Amino acid sequence: MNVGVELNKIWNEMRVYWFELVFGNANTLIAFAGIYFAFQVETKGVSAQVLFFFGVMFWYFGVHATDLVALVMQEELEEGTLEQVLTSRSGIFSVMLGRVLAQLVVDACKALPIFGLLFALTGLGRSLRDVSLLVLILGLFGLSFLAMVGVGATIAGVALVKKRVSSVGFATTNFILYLSGLTIPLDQLPGWVTVLARAFPMSWAGDVLTAHLANDRRAMALASLGLLMCSLLWVAVGGRVFAWGRTTALVRGTTAQY
């Protein structure tokens, strides 16, 4: 894993394609502000505003833990270097982790102007003045992100066998948007949707935040346990599926096929 090399590569691409970067970030800002005003988050109280902030932050960073690994698989397959990476000392997992961490650092830098302008447009910062709340949000983000890395490893394992699965990675955008309670409260959705949402970390994290704001320690502890179990489960599933995909691809000799 060489995060420095990946960072240098990303920065060089950003310097060359700065025009697309500027308008891409503007599009993200417009999307976030549009969701905020379209769903009238400002009229639903502090709890809704805090959940909105966590949701868009997790969406902004979390999708790279899933769709990026699918793109890494496809790039290695396209270049015909996948077998070399799979059998190298560092391994494909190290390559993926390096790229995800590098992208996370770059996204953090790009997020500063996006969220700064979002706070200016919406006044969202007034609901996030509590330092302990911000610390809690960062902790929940870390656990939730860990789960999405597990989801990404699962997609990567499938990609080793099925080759093109980037659409599965992109689908996580919809999962985060609609199954986190960010746009529509989960209790207003059909029961089977709520059950499906519990398979992903966003809903558990939202419950922790809601319980914290309501000072309900019991509900907060139960939701925290659910989030921890969900994250560990996805890490375990991701590791097993990735190992299966790697073994299957090597046995079939399809690592050079795309």
What is the beta-strand fraction?
under 5%
- The average pLDDT is 81
Q: Please tally the β strands and state the result.
A: 0
- How many domain modules? 1
> What's the story with the biggest beta sheet?
none
Overall, the morphology is: globular
Tell me what the structure shows.
The two termini are 25 Å apart. The protein has helices at residues 3-16, 18-38, 45-79, 82-86, 91-122, 131-162, 166-178, 191-197, 201-213, 217-252. It has one domain (3-252). The protein has 258 residues and is mainly α. Helix 3 runs antiparallel to helix 9, helix 6 (131-162) runs antiparallel to helix 9 (201-213) and helix 9 (201-213) packs antiparallel against helix 10. 81% of the residues lie in helices and 0% in strands. The chain has 10 helices and no strands. The mean pLDDT is 81.
Secondary-structure map with pairings?
Layout: H1 3-16, H2 18-38, H3 45-79, H4 82-86, H5 91-122, H6 131-162, H7 166-178, H8 191-197, H9 201-213, H10 217-252
Helix pairs in contact: 1-5, 2-5, 3-5, 3-6, 3-7, 3-9, 6-9, 6-10, 9-10
Task: Describe the structure using short key phrases.
single chain; 258 residues; mainly alpha; 0% strand; globular
Short structural description:
With 258 residues, the protein is an all-alpha fold.
